[in-house]
Design goal:
With 397 residues, chain A is of the alpha/beta class. The first copy, chain A, has 11 helices and 18 strands. Chain A has helices spanning 11-20, 37-46, 56-61, 77-87, 101-114, 128-138, 165-168, 172-188, 290-293, 296-309, 317-336; strands at 3-7, 28-33, 51-53, 67-70, 90-94, 118-121, 145-153, 194-202, 213-220, 225-231, 239-246, 249-254, 261-265, 282-284, 340-341, 366-373, 379-385, 391-396. In chain A, strand 2, helix 2 and strand 3 form a beta-alpha-beta unit. The N and C termini of chain A lie far apart (68 Å). Strand 13 (261-265) of chain A pairs antiparallel with strand 12 (249-254) of chain B. Chains A, B, C, D: Residues 4-115 form the Gfo/Idh/MocA-like oxidoreductase N-terminal domain.
C-alpha cells in the first residue's frame, strides 16, 4: 500500500480521491495541501486525511508519504514538481504537464535527474474503452491506422483560473486538447513521431482572451493523421468521443453521452446525473460510474502498481512533454495560419518508419481496389492492372 | 482484508476471481476447491492460490478462510451451504440460490440459525447502471413505478450441466430469470410483495427437456408489473436490457450490446470482444470492462465491506429465496396456463400498500389528463371534470 | 388517378391527406365529410377540397369519387362502411376495423358480398422499415421466426372519444394493440393461424374505465409467439419499436424515438418535433418525415395502385377482422386470467403447419448446440450425441 | 406532369429513375441517352422509356421533353449543359456542377444567359433530416451557428471514371466534399460568404493520383466554421453524418448507418441491405428507404414543382458554382499548406455581417458565463463583471 500526499483539494482532487478510496483499495491519502485553510480542512474531513496544511512542503515531506499527487492549477505545476524533486518523492501530476513545452521539459529533466518515479495522470487513455481499443488495435483488428480523432467539448470549465490565459496557459486547446492529442497518440502509436500541426482556433462566444473552440490536425511520420476537436461552447453536456479509421476497420467510442443509459423524467427529484450535464428534465443520459468510465480506476491501479513494482507507468512526464510540444505547434499554427512543425528536443520513439501499402491480390493480373453490390443488384469489382497500373471496373454476374 | 475460499473453478469462479484480485484489492483467495484435480490446480496456479483441493471441507475449514464463495453448479449449492454452516463460516453464493424455493428456504433457515453472514451474488443488481438507476428512482425521478422489464437472452450457456433439467433445476427461467426477477424487484421496491405470476415457456430450438425461451409477468401488491424475457435461442450475443416506466419518467438500460463502443473489422486479429459474442468480423460491440459492467466490482465491494463492518449486504439469502419462490410460480403457470400465486412462507416486507392515484390539477374545475401539440400545430389538452368525472378535450390557441 | 372521398377531418384524416397530396401524387380528395360544419370547411380549405358536407352519403355518392377513405372514430366505422356498400364504392378504412370481431366480420362480409375493393389502413406494416424487414425475413435472413414483439406506448391519445370505452371499444389494447398484433403477424407469417392469447391489462394511472396499460402474448400454430406491449402511461414521447428473434438472426426496429436525429436545445424556437413528443428543450429526437416513417406514403401507394390495377392491397378487411378476433381473445384473457382461444369463424391461411427443428451437424456423431469463446480464452462447443441425445461440452484448443 | 430526358444510365441515373417513378408520381422519363447501346437499351426496358439513343442531342431535343436530367460523369457535364442551352431545355444536373469553378461558372452563365430553368441535384440537403434540421435552425432552436460538420466516407466509388483524376476533377474531395460543403452552407446560411479554406488531403491507401482522404475547414464571414471529412478508405459501409453546434443547442444527424434498424444474421439469405454495405452477416444496419433517406424524393418534388410553378428550386447552378469555388480553395490549400481564399467572381449573398455576442445577464452586476453542478454536489456559477470584465466563480448553496 502507498501513502499519498494530495496537493490541491478542488474538483479534480476530489475525483482522484474518490477513486483512490473506492473498492477496498489499500492505499491511503496521508496528507493534503490546499492554498485555502477551509478547503484543506474540508477535504481532510471528507476523506479522513490525518494531516492537512496550507504549506506545500509540509504535505510533501512527511515520512509516510510514498508518492505525491499534484492536482493543482496549471500555473502551480512546476513549483509543485520542483518541491517533489527537492524532497526526493515520487510524483504523479494531473494534465497538462506544463503550460508549454519549455515548462514541461524543465519538469521532465528535473524528475529524471533526481531519479524519482513520475507519472502523468492522463486519465482518458485509461478509460476501459480506450484500453480495450488499444488492445484490439495492437492485435491488428483495424489494420494500419489512418486517422484517429478525439473530441472533447462541453459548456466550459468549473473554476475561474481556467478562464485566465496566463494561469492556464491557454483556453480550450490546453485544457481539452491535451487529452485528445494523447488519445490519438495511443491509437496511432506512441513511438511514431508527430511531425507538424495545422490548427484553427477562435473565441466565438465566451468573454475571454483565450480560444473557446479549436480544431487541429497532427500529421505523423507514418502518414497517419491525429485530429482534435475541443470547445467550451458545446451545448448538451460533455461530449467525449473517439473515432479511428484503419485499413481493416473502424472504431467508435462514446465515453459519455451515449453509453447505454437513457432516462426521461418530468424533472422531479433528479439531481446530479453526469459531469457537465445541462438539464435535469426531459431525456437525460446518466453516466453510471464516472470514476471507471473516465479512467481513474485503471489509471491509479497502473500508477501505484508501477510504483510498487519498480517500473514505469503507461504515462510518464515524457508523454506530457510530447503533448505540450504538439499543443505549442497548434497555438503557433492558429496564429500563422499554416502547418507548423512539432519541435521536440527530446524524442525517444522510432526514427524511421516504413509503410506497407500493397493492395490485396484479386488474381494473377489484378489487385483488388474494392468490391460492391449496387442498389440495382449488380456485383462489381474495381481492379488495378498490376503491370500498367490502370484502374478498371468489372461487373460480376 | 478477507481470506476467501473459492468453491468451484469454472466460468463463474474465474469471473469472480478476476474481480477479487483487481484494482489493488487487499483480499486474498486462500483456498480453492474443484471436483477435478487438474481444474483446481490450474485455477490455483492462475490466481496464485496457496491451497487447492478436491475435498470441499478442506477448502472451507482452514483458519485463514474468512468467507466462502460458492461458485458451483446449482445442484451442489445446498451441500456447499450446509458445509459452511457446519464450519461456521460466512458464505456468499452465486445465483440462483436454490433450484426451487424449498431448497432455498432450507439454506436460508440454516444460515440464519447458524448466525453466519450470508450474501447472495446477484451481480446484475450491482451493475453501475443498476445502482445509479435505483438511486435515481429512489429520489423520485420516475415517480411511481408502473412496470419494470428485464431481458436476458443469449445463444445458450457454456457448460453441460446447465442443459440438464435435473442438475440445473430448469432451463432459461432458472438460469436467467433469477436475474431479471431480482432486477425488477429493486426497481419496484424489494419490500413490495409479489402476488402472482403468469408465464409462457417453450422449448423452441434446443434439444432439451427444459425451456429455452420464456416470458413472464409478475404482479406486485402495489399494482406494478415486473416482466422477464429470457432465452437461450437469441442470436447476436448477450442481450441484457432493462426498461422501467413510472408516472414521471422512463428509464432504459443496455448493459451489454450497445454501451458506446462500436467496431467494424474485416476480421484480422480480433479475438474475444465480449461474453457470448457470436462473430469476430463485421460490426462488433465490444464490452470494455465486463467485470465492472456486470456488477462484479460493486458486488464484492459491498459483500466484503458488509462482512468487515458487521452488517448485511444489499442481497442476502432471503432475496435469493424470494426469487426462487417467484420462479416456482412461473414454472407452475407455464404448465397450468393461468396466473399462479407466489407462495412465500417467509415475507419480511410491507403487508399493506397504499397507491396514490390523484391526477395533477389543471385548474379549479379540471384535472389534467394529458397535453399535446399535434402535427398540424394545434395545442390540445385532455381534461377530466373534477365533479362529473367526464373527459373532454380543449384546443388551446 | 383516383378521386377520394374523405370521411372525417381530424387528426388522422389530416395525416392521411398530407400523404395523399405530397410528392406530386396525381390523386385528389374530391369531397370531405365531417360531423361539424366548421371542421369540414376548414379541412376543405386547407386541402383545397371542392366539396365539403356534414352529410356522409353526400360525400360518398358523388360520381367523381373512386374510393372512400374512412377516418372516423371507431364507433362510426360500421355505419360508414355500410354507406359505401350501399353506394357500391371502393373503401379503405383506418384502424381498427371494428370495436370487436363481430362488428368486423359484418363489415368484411358486407364488402365481400358487394364485391367492392376494400383496404385496411394498417400503416405500421407499411413503414419503410417494416417493409424492408418483411422482405429480409422472407429471404430467410432470420431463419425460422420464434418471437415477434411490437411495442407502442405514448402518453395517451389526442381526442376525447378514445377515452370512452363504449365509443372506442376499449382502451390502449384496441387503440394500439391492433397495430402491434398485425405487425407480429407480418413477421411470423399472415398465413399462420393465431391459436390463443394471454393478456394482462390494468388501469394504472388514467381516470378511465378502460385499460391504460396492457401486455399480451399470442401463440401461433407453428409455435411462434407474438407479443404486444401497449400503454397510454408512457413518458417520453411515442415509443414504437419491434423486436424479432429467429433461429438465424435478430431484428430490432425503432420507428420513432431513435432514428438518427438527435438535438439538444435550450428551448428557444423549437416547436413541433414529433408526434406526442413531451418536451421542447433538452435532448430531443425529432422525426424528420413522419408521413414516410409512419408508413402513410407506402400504404397509400399500395392501396391506390391495387385499386387501379384491380388486385387486392396488402391489407384488407380480412386482416382487420383477424386482428379484432385476436384482440377479443386478449380482452377475455385479461378478465379470465388464463389463455383464451382466438375464435375465427373465417380462416383463410394454412391449416397444417410443419416445423423443422433439426440441429446443424457438428460431425458424424454430434449435432452442434452452440459454440463460444469464454472470457478466459477457451473455445468451447456444446454438442448433442445423435444416438443417445446426451449433451456434452468439449473444449477446443 | 413533366417529360424528362435522362442523360446517363448508370448508378446515379437508376437511383434518380427509381425516385421519379415511385409513389404514383405523374412525371415520365420520355427518353434516355447513354454512351453504350446495351446500357441505354437495358435502362429503357427497365423503366419503360419509349425512346433510347446513343446520341445526346436526340434525347434532349424531342418535343415531349420538358426538362433534362444530367446523370453523366463529371467530365461530360459542360458538354451536356451546353446541349441543353442550345435546345433551350430546362436542366437539372447531378453533383458536382463542374470539375472546378471555372467550368461551373461557364455553365452558370450559359443557362442564365439562355434564361432556362436550372436545378442542382444536391440530394443531401434534401434528406428529410436535413430539411427538418434547416427548419429547426431557422426557427432558432440552435441559436447562432458556430460550427457545422458534414462527414461522408465509404470504401470507394463504384465506377472506374471516379478513380481517374482528369475525368473526375479530383478524388474524394470533388466526389464527396461537394455534398459536405453544401450541407454546411445550408446550416450556416447560404447568404453568408465563405472566406477561406484550410485542407489536408492525402492518398493513404488507394493506388491513385488523386486524394483518397481529406479533411477541410471553411471559414465564413460571420465567424462560423464549416468542416468536411471525406474518404474512400473508410471500412464499415457508408458513413454519412452531420453535426452542428450553436449557441443554444446541438444537432446530430446520422443519415445512414444508425437510423433505427439493426439486424444480426448468420448470413443466410441476406442480400442487399444498404448502399456500400461491406458485409452480409453479423450485425447489419439496413437502410429501409434509401430513396427517401438520401433526399431523392424531396429533391425531385422541389425541382419539378418549381419548374411547373415557374420559380427557382432550392438548389440552382449558382449553388453548384459556390461549392466548386470552395473546393478549388481546398485543393489549393492542400498543396500550399496554408489557408487559401475562396475566389468568388459572382457572390449574391450578404456583404456585411453583424454578429451579436452579448452574454446573458446574471444580475445587475454580472453576465452569466456558465452554471454547473459538480460531482461532489456543489452548484457553481462562472460570472463576468460587467464593468471590469473580470471572470469570477461563485458557489451557490
Amino acid at each position: 500500500m502507498a501513502g499519498i500526499a494530495m496537493l490541491g483539494s478542488g474538483f479534480i482532487a476530489r475525483f482522484y480521491a474518490d477513486a483512490l478510496v473506492s473498492h477496498r483499495r489499500p492505499d491511503r491519502i496521508v496528507s493534503v495541501y490546499s492554498r485555502r485553510t477551509e478547503s484543506a480542512e474540508r477535504f481532510a474531513k471528507d476523506y479522513r486525511v490525518p494531516v492537512w496544511t496550507t504549506r506545500m512542503e509540509e504535505a510533501i515531506s512527511r515520512p509516510e508519504v510514498d508518492i505525491v499527487c499534484i492536482s493543482l492549477p496549471n500555473h502551480l505545476h512546476e513549483e509543485a514538481v520542483m518541491a517533489c524533486v527537492r524532497a526526493g518523492k515520487a510524483v504523479m501530476i494531473t494534465k497538462p504537464l506544463g503550460r508549454h513545452a519549455a515548462e514541461a521539459l524543465r519538469m521532465l529533466q528535473a524528475v529524471e535527474k533526481a531519479g524519482i518515479f513520475h507519472g502523468y495522470l492522463e486519465d482518458l487513455v485509461y478509460t476501459p474503452k480506450s484500453l480495450k481499443a488499444q488492445q484490439l488495435i495492437s492485435q491488428g483488428a483495424l489494420g494500419r491506422i489512418l486517422w484517429a480523432k478525439s473530441r472533447e467539448t462541453h459548456p466550459g470549465p468549473h473554476s475561474e483560473w481556467f478562464w485566465n490565459k496566463e494561469l492556464a496557459g491557454g483556453g480550450a486547446i490546453i485544457d481539452l486538447g491535451c487529452h485528445c492529442v494523447e488519445i490519438a497518440r495511443t491509437y496511432i502509436g506512441k513511438d511514431i513521431r508527430p511531425l507538424e500541426v495545422m490548427c484553427w482556433a477562435d473565441t466565438q462566444v465566451k468573454p475571454i482572451e483565450a480560444e473557446d473552440h479549436a480544431i487541429g490536425l497532427v500529421r505523423y511520420a507514418n502518414g497517419a493523421i491525429g485530429q482534435f476537436e475541443v470547445s467550451w461552447t458545446f451545448r448538451g453536456g460533455l461530449d467525449l468521443r473517439d473515432e479511428v479509421m484503419g485499413t481493416e476497420g473502424t472504431l467508435w467510442i462514446n465515453n459519455f453521452l451515449r453509453t447505454g443509459f437513457e432516462m426521461f423524467t418530468s424533472g422531479k427529484g433528479t439531481g446530479y446525473t453526469a459531469e457537465k450535464a445541462e438539464s435535469e428534465s426531459g431525456w437525460l443520459f446518466p453516466v453510471a460510474d464516472e470514476l471507471n468510465e473516465l479512467g481513474y480506476q485503471h489509471m491509479f491501479t497502473d500508477m501505484l502498481n508501477a510504483l510498487e513494482q519498480g517500473h514505469q507507468p503507461r504515462e510518464t512526464f515524457y508523454d506530457g512533454y510530447v503533448v505540450n510540444a504538439i499543443l505549442d505547434a497548434a497555438y503557433r499554427s492558429a496564429r500563422s495560419k499554416q502547418w507548423e512543425p512539432v519541435q521536440l528536443e527530446v524524442w525517444r520513439g522510432q526514427t524511421e518508419v516504413h509503410v506497407d501499402r500493397t493492395l490485396p491480390d484479386y488474381d494473377e493480373h489484378y489487385y483488388l481496389v474494392k468490391e460492391e453490390t449496387t442498389h440495382y443488384g449488380a456485383r462489381k469489382v474495381i481492379l488495378q492492372d498490376k503491370k500498367t497500373g490502370e484502374i478498371i471496373e468489372r461487373v460480376l454476374s
